[in-house]
Specification:
Mean pLDDT: 90
Low-confidence stretches: none
Distance between the termini: 55 Å
Strand content: 25-35%
Helix content: 25-40%
Largest sheet: 5 strands, mixed
Shape: globular
Order of helices and strands: EEEEHEHEEEHEHEHEEEHHEEH
Strand order of the largest sheet: 3-2-1-9-10
Structural class: alpha+beta
């Protein structure tokens, strides 16, 4: 039996959780956790927790939970395990973290290996002390060593852009900007804004529903349409998507709405 040391970079994103490991494992999973609704769904899955793509595909059978919002763990501004809402978000996030660590361990060469897992967990540029503490709470007992670092700074450092560079990290919950000028950036060098992917999804949804009030849509459906077709070019082909209208798919023009969003 050998002891493997795995070094992981971890982005607990609002929409997706991503890992990159020095054993070659690089993957992601949607940041969703599902819990079976009743005895039937419990029998269907034969487990208490369903994660990622599997949860999204079977969301009608599950109580869905998204533990991250605006780039941080929900309710982490009051990071206290006595807070029931925070504890629920924390437990859901730990399921995701444990799953990703298990995926990383599958890169081991020999069965029966033991592991030391060390992680660098990314945080939004201007995450508060409580937000960062919540990330440590998520990692406790799952990672053997953990460090929390500014996400845009880690990108700059990893790419070697240490000076004369502006890093822009566009996520679902936040857009983070970090200027690099040859030193570790401080708060004045970084900006976090909340008009990010989720905001665009909501605006796109509202614009489509205003134009096609009979449409049967959800924000999750809109998100998929956006990711497949998004453009801001002033010219080009019209964008049509199949929108359920009174239960039947109908191809509708959403070019202006998508560009405006």
């Amino acid at each position: 039996m050998r002891t493997n040391i795995i070094n992981m970079g971890i982005d607990l994103g609002t929409s997706r959780t991503v890992i990159a490991c020095d054993n070659g494992v690089r993957t992601f999973t949607p940041s969703f956790v599902g819990f079976p609704k009743d005895a039937v769904s419990q029998k269907l899955f034969s487990k208490d927790v369903v994660l990622g793509e599997e949860a999204l595909k079977n969301r009608m059978s599950l109580n869905m939970y998204r533990p991250f919002e605006k780039g941080v763990l929900k309710f982490s501004d009051d990071a206290n395990v006595e807070n029931a809402d925070y504890k629920q978000a924390l437990d859901a996030a730990r399921y995701i973290m444990q799953y990703m660590v298990d995926v990383a361990k599958k890169g081991a060469i020999y069965e029966g290996d033991t592991f030391i897992v060390r992680g660098v967990v990314g945080a939004p540029a201007l995450a508060s002390i409580k937000n960062k503490k919540a990330l440590l709470d998520i990692a406790r007992g799952i990672l053997d060593d953990v460090m929390v670092a500014s996400e845009p700074f880690t990108v700059a450092y990893g790419l070697g852009y240490l000076t004369n560079a502006l890093i822009i990290d566009i996520g679902a919950g936040t857009v983070d900007l970090c200027r690099m000028h040859g030193t570790i950036p401080n708060d004045e060098d970084q900006i976090t804004t909340f008009k990010a992917g989720d905001y665009v999804d909501q605006i796109f949804y509202e614009l489509i529903m205003k134009k096609y009030p009979d449409a049967n849509l959800t924000v999750n459906m809109i998100k998929r349409f956006k990711e497949e077709n998004a453009t801001i070019l002033p010219q080009g082909e019209k964008i049509f998507i199949d929108i359920p209208i009174k239960g039947k798919p109908d191809k509708r023009d959403v070019t202006d709405e998508l560009k405006q969003a």
